[in-house]
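User: Sequence in, structure out. Go.
Assistant: Echoing your sequence, followed by the structure tokens.
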Amino acid sequence: MTIRVLLADDQTLVREAFAMLVETASDMEVVGQAATGREAAEPARTRRADLVVMDIRMPDLDGIEATRLIAAHEDLAGVKVLVLTTYDTDENIVDALRAGASGFLVKDTRPAELLDAIRTVAAGEALLSPGPTARLIARFLRTPRGPVTAGPECLSDREREVLALVARGLNNTEIAEALGLSPLTAKTHVSRIMGKLAARDRAQLVIVAYESGLVAPGTQ
């Protein structure tokens, strides 16, 4: 299956460099480019993109609002958003996750890591790794904003354990190892949790886990 990628960044050289890189992957193709957030939303639909690589800081409409538009559009329900950030200097990353982004990566990431990130997010996984990334998310979630529509109180004890590990950045295989489960059972638990919490993907599970207090800010 070929991953159809839309690139949104206000810097032409950055977009072109990303486009050249993406086109080197046999399982990806660039279906469009956008210089502003507003330009990104419509092509995501008309060009049937599977994933948008979205810069946060753009003119006209920033990447956060563009992500929110994509997440709210019924015709774009399957489109994933991978947000670009300057990491420790960009405090908008959690807003992007709340808006519906499935993950983020730093702009100075290595080429192979960008391609892996696209594959990860396109496959439905959240690009949220443990360590510094988890601490970054936790730091900006210390003051929750907006109501949580559903929380861990609707989950079983085992599902709460799984959710806590998802929030710390573990994938299904790592969750299985940590809890003594099979990878298939871990995957089933994650799917059921997403259904109960009406979450788009694992990134949304991370938000619920932190905002509900299931995972304490600063923990790993």
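User: And one key feature?
Assistant: Strands lie at 3-8, 28-34, 51-55, 80-85, 103-106.
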